[in-house]
Structure formats: structure tokens, C-alpha cells
Design a protein that fits this description.
globular; 7 strands; four-stranded antiparallel β-sheet; alpha+beta; 182 residues
């Protein structure tokens, strides 16, 4: 569970808070409220329209690419099997405050999976602040899943949020599958 993963990271010095800084797996982190992130999203949409979602997805992809590079140096990430990598990734997502994610289905042969969160923080907070959204709002999380499974399967992947708490669904659900070739 999340608590034991966090305790293990604390015990091994992988989570450190000192001198006004917070480090998680050897990277500096800023702890910002979800409302602040949603305000950033709102302002991006105000200025850029639908391109804002593309930017947030790109930032999510960047986060994973940078993390994998870092984890390769610190924990030998590339030597782990797909199941261990998936478990590690879900533990990190859960610990970072995105909510508790679970795998609903995973077809390794077809490189398709569905993940779900019943408590995705950004979607819950969005609904509280703005009311129901007309469309799913978690493009940043889609970028995280896309890049994680692009790396895992060595195939360009695409993630679509097919259900969203912000839209009134009881959970957020993400479908990750190979991207269509142009």
C-alpha cells in the first residue's frame, strides 16, 4: 500500500525534508495545492484554448521521461520486469497525491490497459471549485500514463481519459493503447 511504500522510502533516505526543501527519489519537489495546479490549468485554457491540454499532457510526459532517467541511475529501473515497473509507477502516482490508482485490465500482448482512480485529487477538487466539467480534465495524468507505457512497451502509446469525476462519473478511468500511426 501507499503507506508502506512511503515508509520504505523514508527509511532508505529516498524522501527527505530539510532546510526548507523536499526531495523525493533524489529530486527536488515543490508541494503545491491542487487548487493552484487547477488555477494554472484554467489560465492556460484561457490563453491557449484546447492547446492547453496538449501542453499539460506534454508536461506529464516530460515528468515521466525525466523520472525514468533519474531512476535508472538510482534504482536500476531498466533492469526491472514490466510487472515491477508497473507496481512502482502506480505506487509513485499514489504517493504523489494524484489518488489511488488501480489496474482494471492489462493485456500485455495487445499493449492495452485501463487504469482507474476513485479519488483523483485534481478531478475531485475541480468539481468542487468549478462544478461539473463538460469533458475530462486530467490531461496531465494522461501524459504521465502515455510516457510510462511508451517506455515500458517501447511503442508510442496514447492515453484517453474515458471517465472523469469532474464530469460526474464515480471514478476517473484512463485507457492506454498503442497510438494510431499516421
Amino acid at each position: 500500500m501507499v503507506e508502506s511504500f512511503f515508509v520504505d522510502l523514508l527509511k532508505t533516505g529516498q524522501v527527505v525534508a530539510e532546510d526548507g526543501t523536499f526531495m523525493f527519489l533524489n529530486e527536488y519537489f515543490l508541494l503545491i495545492p491542487v487548487r493552484t495546479f487547477l488555477k494554472l490549468r484554467e489560465k492556460l485554457i484561457e490563453k491557449l484554448g484546447d492547446k492547453a491540454d496538449d501542453i499539460l499532457k506534454e508536461v506529464g510526459r516530460y515528468q515521466v521521461a525525466a523520472a525514468i532517467k533519474r531512476y535508472s541511475k538510482t534504482i536500476g529501473f531498466e533492469k526491472l520486469d514490466q510487472v515491477k515497473i508497473t507496481e512502482f509507477g502506480i505506487n509513485v502516482m499514489n504517493l504523489m497525491g494524484h489518488g489511488i490508482f488501480e489496474i482494471v485490465s492489462f493485456n500485455e500482448k495487445e499493449k492495452k490497459l485501463v487504469v482507474r482512480s476513485k479519488n483523483a485529487a485534481s478531478a475531485i477538487e475541480y468539481k468542487l471549485l468549478y462544478g461539473k466539467s463538460k469533458k475530462p480534465i486530467d490531461s496531465y495524468i494522461c501524459g504521465i500514463w502515455e510516457e510510462a507505457y511508451t517506455r515500458l512497451f517501447n511503442t508510442n502509446m496514447h492515453c484517453t481519459e474515458i471517465k472523469c469525476i469532474a464530469c460526474g462519473d464515480s471514478f476517473c478511468q484512463f485507457e492506454i493503447k498503442p497510438a494510431k500511426k499516421n
